[in-house]
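Technical appendix A lists one of the benchmark inputs used to test multi-chain prediction within the project. The record comprises two sequence entries:
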Amino acid sequence: MPHGAARPMSASARGSDVIRALCLILAVCCAPLTAQSETPPLRVVSMNLCTDQLAMLVAGKGQLYSVSALASDPRSSAMVDQAGSYETNHGLAEEIYLMQPDLVLAGKFSARATVDMLKRLGIPVAIFNAAYSLDDVRARLTQMGAVLGQQDRADRLIGDFNQRLTDYRQDQTHSPRVALYYANGYTSGDKTLAGQILQAAGLTNIAAEAGFASGGLMPLEVLAMANPDTVITSRPYPAASRADEIKDHPVITALRGAVSGPSLTDHDWICGTPFVLRAIDDMVKLRHSIPAGQP
Amino acid sequence: MRLFLILSALLIALFITALVIGPADIGIWPSLNALLTGDEGPMSLVMREIRLPRALLAVMIGGSLGLAGAAMQGYLRNPLADPGLIGVSSSAALGAVLAIQTGLAASFAFGLPLTALAGALIGVFLVLALAGPRGSSLTLILAGIAISALAGAFTSLVLNLSPNPFAANEMVFWMMGSLADRSMTHVWIALPLIVLGAGMLATLSRGLDALTLGEDAAEAMGINLRRLRLTLIFGTAAVVGASTAVAGTIGFVGLVVPHLLRPLVKSRPGRLLWASGFGGAAMVLAADILVRVVLPERDLKLGVVTALVGAPLFLHLIYRTRRQGL
């Protein structure tokens, strides 16, 4: 019975460890939050493409110190010019620590090990969820305003955003059926930011009717049977790959029909920032280029 | 003759099955009807541009691999010679990856299969040079392992260095092979080389039969061994190169099929050639049907299925070879 006796003890010891760890995490996470409401951070480092752009939009002068390297990549970032005036980081704990930030902005999917290490080193980290809808865009702007102590600027951006969104809702005469098709045959449904961009532009996404509400691998056959009015593909990356090749498949060409190769400009689509309005603009143009009453 | 009828009946049945199976939910008769009449609707698009090329490629590639395996085994008089095992497929894959990454594949239509052919040629040449004309099993397999490893490492290196974020994920494709989402374009670029290579290998029939009596006897029967060797090298490289260029490396087909059919053709390597061609086509078709039925959502790689069937047989063959003291 020595084993049986030992078990409850070790379990309770482990339990108290967990509680202690939780308390530590809470202390580390909450301390900066309460501190922020009093004095806004003055040396902010962002390590995620989307928080980079939100921070560049919302931060006051001199408040943001460094953005990630991706922010300067014209393919993924909508704010390449602005990113040039900040230091660049590569999301490594060591380099970020040496920048001595008083706040680090990270995405939910940023490298966990890095974020954990920064927290252990006593640097406050604000985590931002990815945006899955246009509502999330507003929510992220509000969150960024809160952590940077720039609520007014965030509110102004949200006001503009709402204003322009209502403009799109005006004319929705016909709603062509389209599909989003990325490398390897991935698609995005209505429960994604890309799907919501299509909706706002008055396009019908076929992913939902094919059973891909939040997206996933859609076999080419299923796409062909859904027979959309056109297919919107992502732009291929430099140097060819088999993954990109699928977008040149004769089936895609046939489905596109008269509407010549619409493609999405990644940098406006990836992140939940007000730049999604530019993506919606492009999609509205696409909608007008598809004649009504097509089969 | 009876074997021929059985194999062709099997092949036709599998071909039709491959055509009516897929993620799009279409009945058997409507799908075949759409394939034949072609009303330009979505159904005929699916049948003609997705399923037909896939089934055709399975036949072409399976036939190539079966034929190449039978030819190499006949020439080396060694049942372990399979284009996948002895590194010909991996070197062809290296050629194909280089063609895609340098843009050669995009710049002219036959850039991809021809570069894969060059890779395969180097592979066959190296194997035959290292193993010698009557290579023992041990040197043959060792040479194959070395060439496979080297070509595989270079393929991974090229894909790792590619600026395309998807390229690195494609190592699995090049190592395991897949027929998903191929198009008629792939059929057309692979077809010429496969026809050429298969034609060359088919001429070996008499030579390989004669070779079973030994090299001196074959030469006495008027077989030009130098020419036989060259035809074998080019024929194998052409069919394996073109197959690998469009479908990645699919292993073990050239090992399993000749082994299963050898007793049925009374161990005559000449007859085994065409039988293995048919058998290989049937095996790849069956494997490709299996990957679509077992895990339709996941793009299970073709090479996984052929390896699951082939690797145990390979072990069995090694065991038997050892017992014979070769």
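Chain B touches chain A at residues 22-26, 41-43, 45-46, 49-51, 100-101, 103, 105-106, 162-167, 169-170, 173, 181, 183-185, 297, 299 (CB under 8 Å). The CA atoms of residues 175 and 249 of chain B lie 6 Å apart. Comparable benchmark entries are summarised in Table A2.
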